[in-house]
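Quick board copy: two proteins, each given as sequence then tokens.
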Amino acid sequence: MKTRSALTLTALGAATLLALTGCAAPEAEVLENGDQKDLTIAVFNGWDEGVAASELWKAILDEKGYNVTLEYADVAPVYTGLTTDDYDVVLDTWLPITHASYIEKYGDDLVDLGAWNTEAKLTIAVNEDAPIDSLEELADNAELFGNRLVGIEPGAGLTEVTTDAVIPGYKLEGMEYLTSSTPAMLSELKAATKAGENIAVTLWQPHWAYDAFPVKDLADPQGLLGAAEGVHSFGGKSFEANFPTLSGWLKDFTLDSKQLASLENAMFNSGGSGSDYAPAVADWISANQDYVDSLTK
């Protein structure tokens, strides 16, 4: 016969087992393709190409039965969150330069799903019909551009490289270098191209301005603006196990700068309302249906 103590221990053990069973996390719902239904995409605050790519994939995957959440955050917390599976994937890692320090620190717990765009770069752009094609020609033709180079925020990396490398390297000290903000630069670019005037601005690929305005990049024969980078998708530590089908789709995903500029222009510069990009993305998908369908074949 069991003693009272033994019966008490048995009862406590059973209660504990029931409590643990009741508190166990429910199993994740899985789609027919083997992927978990719930997906969290991390999006860097203020990085338009990442916003565009993430909104595109959200629209595609929601249509296929996924439950996609976009969570906006600063760069550093995204990478730590990927290592703990708080986020599943981020679509906006620039390599080999911009985000290299994060990949060096966290890369062992992440999976590189490949670059979907390999044309990301800093640029000096001019109106498409400007009479020059290279930064080597700009100093001698500065008067045609009002002796002005229109920049963006004073603290931006593009501003730093323009000040420290491009201006002295191409002898542009005679031009007034104006720094204020990206919106101010874009406003001047819009006004000048609409009026048929020459203008030189600091810009970067990919950007919706290339779809919205008739502009071209000046050649950088000295390479002072740096080489082009790739925009990679990175999954968290469990991403390939949790999303085997989506992993394959993202590894094959490509979106060139012309397509991306078109998507960004539709989202950010075509009268959309606030941050509700879904209608603009849906319209863009309809206009590019063959391409979009190819992403999940």
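And the next:
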Amino acid sequence: MTVSDGGPYVNGGAGATESSTLPMDDGEIHVCQDGPRDAPALLLLHGSASSTRSWDPMVPLLTGSHRVIRIDLLGHGRSAKPADRSYALSDQARRAGAALDRLGVEHAIVVGHSSGGAVATALAEQRPDLVTALAFINTGPSLDAFIAPESAAFGPSQWPPTDEQLRQFASTGFSRAGHRIPQELLDEVRAMTYHTLTTTMQATRHYLEQQALPDRLTVLGKPLLVIFGEDDRRWRSSSASDYRAVPGAKVELLPGLGHSPLLEDPPRTALSLLAFTAIHAVRAD
């Protein structure tokens, strides 16, 4: 099923966002596409407790040169939220790869925000033929870099949470106190189940416990860009230097930005990303 997303963003001549629901063995996966279909593919993967909507401000800045594809990972956004399926990062990556196959994409640069970078890594491990390069935005390299919250956000008895609880939960995702968090993002966190919220976060922790990302990436040998808001309140920004162990990795710190540069300063984030993709993008045949 394909429908118009009805959003305000119009890409470079290809019309409004195309929103699709792809049936998978584990449940339906929601996909958004923008930009010319014959342009190099750019897959954007959101972080935990987020969705395709977190990329909305970035999309118009990328569609001039890319076919931009966004996926709601299982358990998030407008994708299915089953209680009896695996949320391991390897399975999330497998579904993302299957979605690209369904869309006829043979090569893509994969961009991940926060834990989305770990999913991107898992996808590159599984499908090195599909992933031509990787870009991370505030993806912690290991659990040593994680800044633990002062208190638990909420328990199962408090689900679904109120707007105020959600704003408190999301506040560390931004560098400045009082930053306006889009209402649609709050609504999509509330649409998750408590099971999918906690299980997907545990899956990221397990993946990083198994092996740190720089070690995984060194073996893969893929071009790598790491963008990190210098004022991140969830992952120590100094940990971005750990990625320098990956041969050829490019690491950029963005002063004045926190955990979500894609929402806090989309133009500055897009500038760094587009400079990287201009070198490594592969045009569709």
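Board note added afterward: Residues 150 and 172 are 11 Å apart (CA to CA).
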